Amino acid sequence: MGSPDSVEYIRMVHHLIEECIVFKMNKEECMEALTKHANVNPIIASTVWKELEKENKEFFEDYNKEIEERASSSAETDESSETSQVTDDASIN
Question: Disordered: where is this region (predicted)?
């Protein structure tokens, strides 16, 4: 097994990934946030995420589905807002 420091580091990354999940981040958003804000090596973050996926397969299947649905719903809302803005702009003229 690794040194106590490396075990603690992995635990910290694990905890930070759980925080990303609370904020409904997808894997890419989480990796970017951990790299930028916590100076976590992206390879380590990705490896810990993959291990969590292996250990919690059902949870991540549901989570990823929810994230995808949320993203597509958000994209549809954005398109709808843009269409209504164009319509509003046209009626002003």
Answer: 65-93
Range(s) of the domain holding residue 8: 1-55
Q: How do residues 35-57 score in pLDDT, each as one tens digit? A: 999 999 999 999 999 999 999 99
pTM greater than the 0.85 cutoff: no
Calpha distance 27→20 (Å, rounded): 9
Query: CB of 30 within 8 A of CB of 19?
Result: no
Residues 67 and 47 in one domain: no
> Encoding tokens for residue 1?
């097994």
Question: Cβ(24)–Cβ(70) under 8 Å?
Answer: yes
Give the model's pLDDT for residue 1: 55
> Does 43 share its domain with 71?
no
